[in-house]
Amino acid sequence: VQLVESGGGLVQPGGSLRLSCAASGFTFSNTPMTWYRQAPGKERDMVATSAGGSTNYADSVKGRFTISRDNAKNTLYLQMNSLKPEDTAVYYCKANVGWMYDYWGQGTQVTVSS
Q1: Closest to 13 in 3D by CA, of 80, 78, 91, 67
Q2: d(C-alpha 78, C-alpha 6), whole Å
Q3: pLDDT exceeds 90 at position 73
Q4: Do the bridges between strand 89-97 and strand 108-112 make them parallel or antiparallel, or are there none, so unpaired?
Q5: β-pairing, 108-112 with 9-11?
Q6: Quick count: other Cβ atoms within 10 Å of Cβ 2?
Q7: Fewest beta carbons within 10 Å, which of 24, 43, 62, 89?
Q8: What are the contacts of 23-26 at 24+ separation with CB within 8 A?
Q9: How far apart are CA 44 and CA 34, in angstroms?
Q10: In the prediction, which pLDDT does 90 show?
Q11: pLDDT tens per residue across span 11-64
Q12: Nearest to 16 by CA among 75, 87, 107, 100
């Protein structure tokens, strides 16, 4: 199993970024996938989940972030709009393979600052 995040960077408040998570080594199409984030000194928190055709979001990102997946490309996305300084964190994707085993990517840094 391999998960590789990309798309992070520095963006001004109010801006947008799209994160990608390229997956390999498992059957992506039927695997629950989740974006998490971890800010300095804080715990890693769930941001958005895609599983069984359904999505779920943390309250802090509802209406601003959108999780999606391209099963043909084995890629998970996170479109982030109206970014705020408090969105600054390392963003990770997680695969729940076989609905049993969790695998993590290496993370991508998102910094929201003017």
Answers
A1: 80
A2: 10
A3: yes
A4: antiparallel
A5: parallel
A6: 12
A7: 43
A8: 23/74, 23/75, 23/76, 23/93, 23/95, 24/74, 25/1, 26/1, 26/95, 26/97, 26/103
A9: 12
A10: 98
A11: 999 999 999 999 999 999 999 999 999 999 999 999 999 998 899 999 999 999
A12: 87
Q: What is the pLDDT of residue 91?
A: 98
CB-based contact 58:80 (threshold 8 Å)? no
pLDDT for 99 equals: 84
Q: What is the pLDDT of residues 99-109, one digit of tens each?
A: 889 999 999 99
| Residue 38 token pair | 């971890």
- Residue 20 CA to residue 97 CA, distance in Å, equals 18
Q: Strand, helix or coil at 29?
A: helix
18's tokens: 């799209």
Cα–Cα nearest to 104, from 9, 19, 35: 35
Tokens of 69: 């997946």
